[in-house]
Structures are given as structure tokens and as C-alpha cells.
């Protein structure tokens, strides 16, 4: 079976079965040894990891990776706590390259849920006591 072009020109593996998928990948690696070595060397290169992280944080939040790390050291802007996993919050409507602030994971998840249900929640709160 032949691999087919997928999203963004990447090739999708032809097998859903993990064993067949492994066999296909190993056969490709044997047939394309030089290309595989280049890919592996690029993956193992630590500067490439840093460049990729820097590019990703620039694209997502408009920040360098160093700024991204520094921001995550701040406490949550909603609850004031500093959790193990801090998130850079962004407004999906504004698009990539922007951020609103730093939130702990709990507040970030709850804020996302609230944004999705805001109209319903506000309508309920306006009802008041019956």
C-alpha cells in the first residue's frame, strides 16, 4: 500500500494497524537512510529545539521563548496562586500573536468554559430569585 498526501503535503501512513505502520516506517527508513539521518540529527540538535520553541511562542503569543518562560513564573491573574502548570491565556477572537495574561491551568480551563457558556450563565444570573 502506498502512502497518500495528507494535510499540508505531509504523507499519511497507510496503515491504521500499529504493527503494519511500524513495518512500513522501518522499510521507509531502510530505503531512505540518508534522509532519515538528516531528520534524526535535526531532531537531536538542541539549538533546533530552542529555535522551534522560540518560533512557536512568537507565532502563538508574539513573545520570545525567554519572555514566555518568564511570564509563566508569575502568579495566576485570577486566583493569585502559582500552580505547577501555568498557562499563557489568549483570546481566540484576536487570533495568534496576542495574549491576555498568565493563568493557572484550573482558571484557564474554567475561563474557557465560561466563555463558551457566557450568554447562558449571564441570562441565568439576571433571572434572580423567583
Nutshell version of this structure?
InterPro entries: Endonuclease_7, Endonuclease_7_sf, His-Me_finger_sf. By secondary structure, the protein is mainly α.
Protein architecture, described:
- There is one protein chain.
- The longest helix has 23 residues, at 105-127.
- This protein has helices at 18-31, 33-44, 46-61, 65-71, 105-127, and strands at residues 4-5, 11-12, 86-89, 101-104.
- The protein starts with a strand and ends with a helix.
- The strands form two sheets. The protein has a two-stranded antiparallel sheet with strand order 1-2.
- A hairpin with a 5-residue loop joins strand 1 (4-5) and strand 2.
- The radius of gyration is 22 Å and the shape is elongated.
- It is mainly alpha-helical.
- It is built from five helices and four strands; from the N terminus they run E-E-H-H-H-H-E-E-H.
- This is Endonuclease VII.
- InterPro entries: Endonuclease_7 (IPR004211), Endonuclease_7_sf (IPR038563), His-Me_finger_sf (IPR044925).
- Pfam families: Endonuclease_7.
Amino acid at each position: 500500500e502506498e502512502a497518500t498526501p495528507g494535510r499540508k503535503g505531509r504523507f499519511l501512513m497507510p496503515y491504521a494497524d500499529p504493527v503494519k505502520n511500524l513495518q512500513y516506517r522501518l522499510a521507509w527508513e531502510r530505503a531512505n537512510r540518508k534522509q532519515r539521518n538528516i531528520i534524526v540529527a535535526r531532531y537531536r540538535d538542541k539549538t533546533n529545539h530552542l529555535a522551534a520553541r522560540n518560533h512557536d511562542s512568537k507565532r502563538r503569543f508574539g513573545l520570545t521563548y525567554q519572555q514566555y518562560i518568564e511570564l509563566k513564573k508569575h502568579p495566576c491573574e485570577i486566583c493569585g496562586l502559582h500552580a505547577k502548570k501555568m498557562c499563557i491565556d489568549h483570546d481566540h477572537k484576536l487570533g495568534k500573536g496576542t495574549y491576555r495574561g498568565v493563568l493557572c491551568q484550573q482558571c484557564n480551563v474554567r475561563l474557557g468554559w465560561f466563555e463558551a457558556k457566557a450568554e447562558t450563565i449571564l441570562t441565568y444570573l439576571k433571572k434572580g430569585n423567583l
